[in-house]
Amino acid sequence: MKKQKSKILIVDDLPKNIQLLGTILNEDNYDVEFALNGPDALQWVKNDHFDLILLDIMMPGMDGYEVCTRLKENEKTREIPVIFITAKNDIESTIKGFEVGGIDYITKPFNSQELLSRVKTHIQLYKQKQELNKKNLHITDSINYAQRIQEAALPEDLQIKELLPDHFILYKPRDIVSGDFYWVKQIEHKAIIAVGDCTGHGVPGAFMSMLALSFLNEIIHDVEKINAAHILTELSKKIKYLLKPNSDDQAIKDSIDMSLIIIDYEELSMQFSGAQSLMMMVREGLHDNLSGETDHIKIQQNTEKNNTLFQISGLRRPVGFDYRQHKKDFYNQNFRLKEGDVVYLFSDGYIDQFGGEKNLRYSRKRFKNLLSNIYDKPFNTQKEILEKELITWQNDNSQLDDIVIFGFRVADAYGEVDLF
Q1: pTM to 2 decimals?
Q2: Sequence-ordered alpha helix ranges (H) in 307-414
């Protein structure tokens, strides 16, 4: 297959300059076109493709600076490399040439070999960039498709609403796909809800989250008695087995921080097991304790809003690879619920976000205070407040990590829906 010639547009108001440049470029096997003024040049690039433009500055009417500016303003032409070739050799003219978007600046008289060398280099860079952009677009398209698959694997909000009428989910991937996930399942008179934070984010984290969702559904179908700690234990075994290394050098040291709760809505009770994670619950009134078997609990009373926030922590060990090599097993914490309790499960992305006047982490303390002050609002309002607070806090910082917050209000009866 014959290699296609690179195409160059010469823009100069003097025919003798065009003839000289055209001769040099034709001898080096370039396909050359020309324009005698700025408007004609802009019309050329509108209707044809060029790999490079050689542009004079001093032309009547529209000068080279304005031509270049217009080229860079147009999405179709802004990537075409522009080399100014001119008799203006003062530093101010050179600087202005680069400021308006020129990629190089050659002064007359010029050396033909130097000209050809620069032209060749910039065309090669332009074509490499075009090829890279095509590959990036292909990768982005693939990741966007993966996003659709990942979102399809998550429970649908309408289905969750049938089981938990008062709830919200704030789900904000840092990239296109996310390492954070949420999972909801109903088994007879029990609702199982989990929020997970996989190692990393982006594509690796998304793969881990898809594995976790698949394994969770397997585990639920395989067990006779629903038990939160047992689910985390089995999930950890499956992930470690799947990612087992063939050698120490090939070890895949991925893990999941995870909160998992089981609500028995006949007894109005909750079972919680955490893997390097915690949950929070806000209850109306001022309380000194939480009825049940809870060992790792912190209590924060809000006298102004007349409520109590309970922070319940799980085992300081993740699901999957554990670099600390903990010997303890996942355990359950059981406690009674009251109608109107508001439960929050979340990853650490919101709490760890940098921002504010001193560019600090948002912190667990701020998060607890925020939840304590908004827990009694409608859930769509709570979600809006959390989103606005994050944007305000984040300021000019980029989002640090994936974010998921799952909040719901406890009712004395729940709907029934098949959540796969």
Answers
A1: 0.77
A2: 364-374, 379-394
